[in-house]
Amino acid sequence: MSYEFKAIRRVEFSDTDMAGIMHYSNFFRYMETAEHAYFRSLGLSIARDKNDPSVGWPRVHAECDFKLPLRFEDEVEIHLLVSEKRSKSISYLFKFSKLNATPVMEVARGKLTVVSVAMGEDGKMSACSIPPSIADKIQVAPAELLV
Known about the structure:
This protein is mainly beta. It has helices spanning 25-41, 132-135; strands spanning 4-10, 59-66, 75-85, 89-98, 105-115, 117-119, 125-127. The chain contains 2 helices and 7 strands. Strands 1-3-4-5-2 form a 5-stranded antiparallel beta sheet, with helices on one face. It has a two-stranded antiparallel sheet with strand order 6-7. The protein is globular and about 50 Å long.
């Protein structure tokens, strides 16, 4: 079972805006990249057709608070922590740390909540319980890490 994952990215030129600062929308892309890598580290996939049983993970909540800017070529660690696991949803906390700063500093915090859904024959999604084959691999992080 696992409650955390760390990914490291370098800010690319295409991630920045005209002021040379990483565009806010890319924090959400980085969160999603870390989430997908977390699932792969558990032998799972976000893709519906790669899991048995087949479930999808639409986002129902996303937020990010920004403390300091990231710039081209900054190295950033995205620390994913499972903050809550319910029967049909998972919530994550993301801590973004600038690794090439002395000392290393947190530059942003994000949150993401996803819901387990099944796709009906009519193409409509409906919330469903997280399959045990997935839920059993995921646990909630200790409270002291979620501060």
